[in-house]
Specification:
93 residues; mainly alpha; 2 domains; 56% helix; elongated
């Protein structure tokens, strides 16, 4: 791509970086439009694991594709975020 940008489009190094950034940004927006739930899960994962030490016990009992009932003890309003953040590796069905 660098060769195409410099030889055919005649961009300077600053233009190459800007063009590559725009292409990357468009790709990121496209992927986020396809998978908006995964962005939310990723943000919740980083948010909850930054402030809380989450230890999941019995992950092998958690179904990958079928339904599951997750119950929290309502110690705080963060319980729902912790539940969603701790199930980030679950397959979307």
């Amino acid at each position: 791509m660098y060769y195409v940008f410099t030889a055919y489009i005649h961009l300077d190094p600053r233009g190459v970086i800007i063009a590559a950034s725009m292409i990357t940004g468009m790709g990121t927006v496209y992927v986020l439009m396809l998978l908006p739930e995964w962005l939310g899960r990723l943000l919740l994962f980083f948010l909850t694991h930054t402030f809380y030490r989450v230890k999941v016990v019995g992950r092998d009992n958690f179904p990958e594709k079928t339904g599951a009932l997750l119950v929290c003890n309502h110690m705080s309003f963060v319980d729902a975020l912790l539940l969603i953040g701790s199930t980030t590796d679950r397959s979307a069905s």
